[in-house]
Amino acid sequence: MLKFVKGHMESITGIEIYPIISLLIFFSFFVILFLWVFTAKKDYINTVSHIPLDNQNDTEL
Questions:
Q1: Euclidean distance between CA atoms 42 and 33, whole angstroms
Q2: What percent of the chain is predicted at pLDDT more than 70?
Q3: N or C: which terminus of the chain carries fewer CB neighbours within 10 A?
């Protein structure tokens, strides 16, 4: 099965750019996420981290 896919992919011209584009998208997403985590305000992080524990808006049946 893999030989069939590899042989078919080798016949397509210009396909070697797609793994490079995928790697760049993957790398840039995590770099941006990393920068956002370290530049986020501590008050915002604290507020968001307490949302799952907040029971004031829950209605009991």
A1: 16
A2: 87
A3: C
- DSSP-derived letter for residue 16 is T
Q: How many domains does the chain have?
A: 1
CA distance linking residue 14 with residue 24, whole number of Å: 17
Amino acid at position 40, single letter: A
Q: Which of 41, 38, 42 has its CA nearest to residue 30? A: 38
Residue 29 lies in domain:
17-51
Helix (H, G, I), strand (E, B) or coil at 41: coil
Where residue 54 falls among pLDDT bands split at 50, 70, 90?
Answer: confident
Q: Is residue 23 part of a domain?
A: yes
Are residues 57 and 51 in contact, defined by beta-carbon separation less than 8 angstroms?
no
Question: Is residue 10 in some structural domain?
Answer: no
